[in-house]
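Exercise 7. Given the encoded structure of a 381-residue chain, write a plausible sequence.
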């Protein structure tokens, strides 16, 4: 099994990168773009492993193994849970790029969230990629080329990943994860091409339960109280899920900080510890907020899938539904409202998404406004 086998539905990307590794079109700065879940980060790490591997990504050697598990000394991956990627982190990466490789011919630096670079961080990065050292290769990942400064993207060779088909995702779950065929297809449809989401849905019952709760909202939104209750439920459940993920990391980081400052051994806190702890807690708060918004965003996309299915039924389009397992509810929703009304509801969801992600509107307030816009008429007796 090579490092490329994990790239689901990206055969053209694999072929392109392999040609470059053979000496045709290789460059020092790359930009991997593609929709969420298409595997940008996986592709970047696979490419890094292939660069360090003497057999272009065999998947079996020490170089491939250490890159894939994140312990290769010459491959650095920068990822962030915060809203932005700051200049201090980029300057440290730029400093590292000037160093010679430790164990191989090339040093590979991957920025997974290049779309979150602040303007100052982008300018710091630009200076490094304008005149890269001979042994350094940069790989930037972003949803689209427009997410980066024009001066940066103009200096990159772009690799475009596409959304895998349901069949490609389902076959991957069956062959790589051993998932039963019916469950694999259900997870593939529900994920809408997002590999990580499909894997989570296929392997974890609690993830499926949470999604089932969200996609059950539309037909229940028949009055003011129902809408406000649904908004509160979504805000609370997503906050709990986000806290579960970040809480363990936060505790571990605080323990590591206390150890590094000798708090445990000395039994007292040195003067430098308080500002370091304050900085850490500020960063953790920002990360928790971003994680909560990410979880809400996933729920919003699940809601959109329900209205897309209702439009499909309302217009008489052929093909399976994304939410085939709740077809009776989709039928009921399509009977209650026209396709035009469903489109307006989708627009309301994206408005709420923009309010939270771009304009910092409190999640509960944005969700309450959205749920009211999603309200459906009561069935006549």
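Solution.
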């Amino acid at each position: 099994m090579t490092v490329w086998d994990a790239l689901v539905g990206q055969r053209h990307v694999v072929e392109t990168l392999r040609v470059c590794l053979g000496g045709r079109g290789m460059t020092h700065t790359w930009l991997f773009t593609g929709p969420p879940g298409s595997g940008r980060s996986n592709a970047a790490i696979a490419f890094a492993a292939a660069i360090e591997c003497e057999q272009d990504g065999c998947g079996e050697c020490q170089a491939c193994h250490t890159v894939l598990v994140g312990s290769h000394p010459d491959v650095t991956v920068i990822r962030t849970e915060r809203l932005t990627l700051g200049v201090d982190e980029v300057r440290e990466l730029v400093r590292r790029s000037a160093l010679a490789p430790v164990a191989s011919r090339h040093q590979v630096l991957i920025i997974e969230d290049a779309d979150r670079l602040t303007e100052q961080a982008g300018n710091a990065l630009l200076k490094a990629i304008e005149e890269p050292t001979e042994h350094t290769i940069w790989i930037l990942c972003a949803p689209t080329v427009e997410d980066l400064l024009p001066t940066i993207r103009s200096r990159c060779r772009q690799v475009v990943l596409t959304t895998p088909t349901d069949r490609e995702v389902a076959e991957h779950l069956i062959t790589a994860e051993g998932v039963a065929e019916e469950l694999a297809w259900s997870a593939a449809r529900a994920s809408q091409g997002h590999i990580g989401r499909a894997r989570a849905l296929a392997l974890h019952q609690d993830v499926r339960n949470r999604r089932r709760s969200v996609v059950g909202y539309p037909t229940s939104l028949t009055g003011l109280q129902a809408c406000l209750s649904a908004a509160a439920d979504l805000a609370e459940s997503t906050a709990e899920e986000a806290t579960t993920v970040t809480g363990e990391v936060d505790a571990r980081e605080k323990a590591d900080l206390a150890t590094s400052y000798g708090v445990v051994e000395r039994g007292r806190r040195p003067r430098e510890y308080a500002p370091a702890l304050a900085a850490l807690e500020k960063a953790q708060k920002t990360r928790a907020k971003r994680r909560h918004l990410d979880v809400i965003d996933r729920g919003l996309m699940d809601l959109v899938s329900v209205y897309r299915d209702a439009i499909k039924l309302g217009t008489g389009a052929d093909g399976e539904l994304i939410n085939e397992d709740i077809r009776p509810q989709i039928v009921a929703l399509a009977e209650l409202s026209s396709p035009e009304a469903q489109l307006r509801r989708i627009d309301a969801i994206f408005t709420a998404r923009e309010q939270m992600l771009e304009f910092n509107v409190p999640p509960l307030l944005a969700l309450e406004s959205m749920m009211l816009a999603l309200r459906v008429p009561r069935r006549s007796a």
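Remark. The mean pLDDT is 93. Students should compare their own answers with the one above.
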